[in-house]
Design brief:
The chain is an alpha+beta fold. The protein has two domains: 32 residues, no CATH class; 130 residues, Nucleoside Triphosphate Pyrophosphohydrolase. The protein is 15% helix and 39% strand. It has two helices and eleven strands. The strands form two sheets. Strands 4, 5, 6, 7, 8, 9, 10 and 11 form an eight-stranded mixed sheet that branches. A three-stranded antiparallel sheet has the order 1-2-3, with no helix packed on it. It is elongated and about 60 Å long. The relative contact order is 0.21.
Length: 166
């Protein structure tokens, strides 16, 4: 017999203070929580590694290696994994650089400072090309996301502030 997709309604469950999705059949509460994006600003000899995206959103635009955190990994482990997946780069994760709250898309973006272990990198499966840029070479008009531009500036300024993006 085929399984039916659960039907949900919205209500404030007992003991809660927010409206949630609740299963019509078993009363399971489906908590919809923000997603965590993890990434890093990989540096080699004063240059920053950027990736040109091969996927939407913002295909063809430049970004830092970053993506959604996976289950059972730390934010630092996720940032290192994303550098390997997107830029085929081995990085040494440094200190936390900055954190962005992006409530309009229910995301939190976490960026670390990082150093390339060696100057070897390439295009991963979500990347058209990867390249090292000096600060003056960064293609600012082609940066994919506002949080990436802010992370680059935080790297440059040496500050690690918590930011809220509109």
């Amino acid at each position: 017999m085929p399984r039916l997709a659960p039907a949900f309604h919205r209500e404030i469950p007992a003991g809660d203070s927010r409206e949630r999705r609740v299963c019509d059949h078993c009363a399971f509460v489906d908590y919809e929580n923000p997603r965590v994006v993890v990434g890093c600003v990989p540096e080699h000899e004063g240059k920053i590694l950027l990736c040109r995206r091969s996927i939407e959103p913002r295909r063809g635009y430049w970004t830092l290696p970053a993506g959604f955190m996976e289950t059972n990994e730390t934010t630092a482990e996720g940032a290192a994994r994303e550098a390997e997946e997107e830029a085929l780069a081995q990085v040494e994760i440094g200190p936390l650089l900055t954190l962005f709250e992006v409530p309009h898309v229910s995301q939190v973006h976490v960026f670390y400072r990082a150093t390339l272990r060696e100057p070897r990198f390439g295009a991963g499966h979500e990347t058209l090309e990867a390249r090292l840029f000096t600060w003056d070479e960064i293609p600012w008009d082609e940066i994919a996301f506002e949080s990436v531009a802010h992370a680059l500036w935080a790297w440059r300024e040496g500050n690690g502030l918590v930011h809220r993006l509109p």
